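anyone seen this seq b4? input:
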Amino acid sequence: METIHRKDGRLHIYVRQDKYKGELKSHNWVGRAYVNGKQKVSSSGTTNIEEAIPILEKWYDDLTQENPENIEENKQNQSKEILEPDNKAAAPQNNSSNAEDGKIAVVNSLNTTTIDVNDKEETIQSSIASTPKGITMNMLEKLKNIKFSKDSKETSDVAKSPISNKDKLKKFKDTFQNLFASKVSKLSVAGEEIAGIDISREAVRVAQVSKGKDDKWILDKFSYRLLDREKVSENILDSKDYLAEEIELAMANGAITTKNIALSIPVTSAIIRVVTSPLMTEDELKKAIETNSLWENLVQLTDNLSDYSIFHQVINRNSKNNTMEILFVASKLSDVNAFSAIVKKAGLNPVIMDVRCFSLKNAYDNSKIHLAEGKNNTAILELGVDENYLMVIHNNIPVITDIFLRPQEKQSLLEVVSDQIPAESDAVIRRYSMQIKQAIADYEGKYENKISNVQVVSSLKNIHYLIPAFKKNLLTMGFIIFDPLQEIALPSYNKEKIPADNKSVLASVLGLAYRKLDVFGYYKFVTAVKNINLLPNRDAIRQSNKLKFLSGFAAKGLAGSIAAIYLLLIIFSFFQIQSNKKTLLEFASVQTEFNKINKEFSTLSKQRRTMQQSLTLGKLINSNQTRSYRALAQITRSVPLRVSFTKMTFDGDQTVIIEGKAYSDQDILNFVSNLNKKSLIAQASLTAMKVQDSQKSNTGNNNQKGFVINCKLKNA
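predicted toks r here
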């Protein structure tokens, strides 16, 4: 391909000539230039030369910013550059794959292995713990020059200018949103109902856990189904119908009602790497991934990126070196969809797709062993017919080394039926142990961190016969069967379901049961290896469940609480949730005290009104005191012998109401007549008369009659 020279020969535009399987790896036009003595390369992202030229010229102008020193330096390098072949800069990189069809080369810091992706039995999957050796500085420089929609010159100018109020407000808002998400998401994570399902060729296991008041895990529900090996194909994905039926039975036997399921794929079906890239912002990283430019340069896959389901998470940012480490986990979409189809056929809803090695790590992190042994000094070994690997997590970086066993060697291990190990099986154990030693030695040499213990997870029925033989070859370290139930409460109704001799078979299903859907993204604040989800629709699942969670929140009357918390977070930016809880408790106490005082105030107000009425009446009485006393005296002298008062009411002015009782009607009439004869009484009249029923029980005489007499006094 002819090289096009622009910008006075300082910008060279060409198509890379490196090939894979006989085809060009990329047909896009790329640009090359020298800046500050270093070669810079950038892709235009298009195969159209007319479109590529202005894009690459703009890139060159932004790169040099018309710096005279750079231009002069480019001129000095021009002659040397022209003498080089046009495809030199586009030569195949050191990490390019030379694998045959159906195989990929996986680079590990500990070893390099060729993987046959078509042979599931002998697949060896390695993960790297640092930047692959084949990635050169040229690749890193190229990634640094990936162009996004924003003008770099404009960005530079903005960076130099003072921060505007708008930018400050945006930063303030983002800070609170992140804080709100991190806090509220804890609540959502705690409430998500998810069951774990472990699918293997031996059994199907289901489990659901919860946390008690003491913050300790409880194995609420558990069940398993041993599988008929004759009904399970060598590739379990070919036995979808049978596995779906067994899952339904296991869920029913365990009384698990939730439809949300976390499951895992085998390590042999996953590609796990930690790659190093130039330091980027979240927006830049997102754009680099959307354009596939990041994975195309950092990860060599056998098929197109569109054939894979990819999960990534930044696990470390090094501003000093201007680099960052990214966890890359991928699996063929066909495998992911096949495992999902199994649980869907069982009427369940897959919401999390983890990798088996990380589910084991999750189970280990929730055990007493993890708490007792400290950080990064324990390796997890899966030993079995299908999966054999050693894994150590170092500062969130998974270091995974495959243990290679030929089919006849696997069969030799299965033939051990007692403490007497056959010579052929013992030789296999020695070779197996040598691989463990080498992997541990490589890890300890690189990370300067001692591994003192190996926790073994195995589904082999004869594992107890094999453990002593391994210990003879691994004298300097612990080599024990992992017990994932050491930090979990076990209800009595589940104790009989637990295997007594080998509890490690429960590690994967428990590790999955510990997972939560994390609709608010809480796990991104914790660690990468706890957040793996390979489902291609994981974002839609999270969004859907996020809406369900918020709806339930509102239905329970907690939407107002969220708004209040959010408001408090805005006003008091640095307050912690615990402080807010304390404030709410104090408010509740104040509210209770207020209600008490308010009740007392109401009582006192009522008493005050009564006293005011009495005072008013007293003032009226006092104003015509003499006339009132005389009138009352005349009323008293008018009472016949067989008449008595029960109540007398005086309005302080003109009217006196007399209530009483008498033994006869004539007595009452005599009383009225006497009143009317008095000089101060204008008129006395009988307004009511009734029999006093209440007197029967007290006196035995019910002949007394009650009366009410209204006396109107004469004007003063």
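Confidence is low (pLDDT under 50) at residues 68-144, 146-161, 695-700. The chain has four domains: 4-92, 206-556, 557-622, 624-713. kinda curious what u guys think
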